[in-house]
Amino acid sequence: MADEIKKEPDKKKSIIAEFKEFISKGNVLDMAVGLIIGSAFTAIVNSLVNDIFTPLIGIIIGGIGFSEMTISVGTANLAIGLFIQAVINFLLTAACVFAVVKTINKFRRKKPAAPPKPSKEELLLTEIRDLLKEQNSKK
Questions:
Q1: Which of these, 46, 89, 78, 94, lies nearest to 67 by C-alpha position?
Q2: pLDDT tens digit string along 64-118?
Q3: Which of 15, 43, 49, 70 could form a disulfide with 77 if both were Cys (CB 3.0 to 4.6 A apart)?
């Protein structure tokens, strides 16, 4: 029982140490930066959809604003226009993210993979093979 009590503080220390290691890893920081930039990017795309594309599409379909497009079903009003606006927003966001990822991948140049170093066994077998060849050529 005394051993169990002693192990518990060590477990807490290891969890705290693991958490510190997890937080300080580059991947977590990269993810946090990506999240912040992603939310700012979403604001830009939302503005693009709400302030430019939606009014243009509204003009093309006859001057109807998307926020005004509703369908009444009984006593409920279905905001079809807002749904269409959300779909356009999603498609534009996806297209922009696709373009950014494709551009970044194009700039990343893949280095040619170096052949793996032979293992100790392979080196030993190569030496044995060479010695056998040498002995057979002397005969």
A1: 78
A2: 677 778 888 889 889 888 888 888 878 887 887 788 888 888 887 776 778 888 8
A3: 70
Distance CA 48, CA 55 (A): 10
Name the token pair of 59: 């003009």
Instruction: Give the domains, in start order, of the chain with CATH numbers.
Output: 2-138 (1.10.1200.120)
Q: Rounded distance, CA 136 to CA 128, Å?
A: 12
E-state strands within the chain: 71-73, 76-78
pLDDT band at residue 12, thresholds of 50, 70 and 90?
low
Tokens 């693009």 found at: 48
Question: Does residue 60 contact residue 99 with C-beta atoms inside 8 Å?
Answer: no
Position 107: which residue type?
Answer: F
